[in-house]
């Protein structure tokens, strides 16, 4: 279960980075902002799962 959530976090981070880059390239500020938001969500998910791992030990 935790591995699944970590993978989902990585996916969100990567997808967000792509959106941000494409948004910047085409001059679409809203797409760029969406990308940053997705990256943040992925970062938060990763941090949550890492914290869970620390407390499991």
Topology:
Blueprint: H1 2-26, H2 29-56
Helix content: over 70%
Strand segment count:
0
pLDDT average, as an integer?
A: 91
Helix-strand sequence = HH
Shape, per Cα inertia axes: elongated
Which stretches of 5+ consecutive residues score pLDDT under 50? none
Helix/strand/pairing class, anyone? Answer: mainly alpha
The profile of the biggest β sheet is: none
Number of helices: 2
Radius of gyration, in Å, reads 13 Å
Content of β-strand: under 5%
Q: What is the distance, rounded to the nearest whole angstrom, between the alpha carbons of the first and last residues?
A: 16 Å
Summarize the structure.
This protein is mainly alpha-helical. 93% of the residues lie in helices and 0% in strands. It contains two helices and no strands.
Description:
The structure is a single chain. The chain is mostly helical and about 55 residues long. The longest helix is centred in the C-terminal third of the chain and has 28 residues. The mean pLDDT is about 90.
Key descriptive features of the protein:
57 residues, mainly alpha, 2 helices, 93% helix
């Amino acid at each position: 279960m935790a591995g699944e959530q970590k993978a989902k976090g990585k996916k969100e981070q990567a997808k967000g980075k792509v959106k941000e880059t494409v948004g910047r390239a085409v001059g679409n500020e809203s797409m760029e902002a969406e990308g940053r938001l997705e990256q943040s969500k992925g970062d938060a998910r990763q941090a949550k799962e890492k914290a869970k791992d620390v407390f499991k030990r």
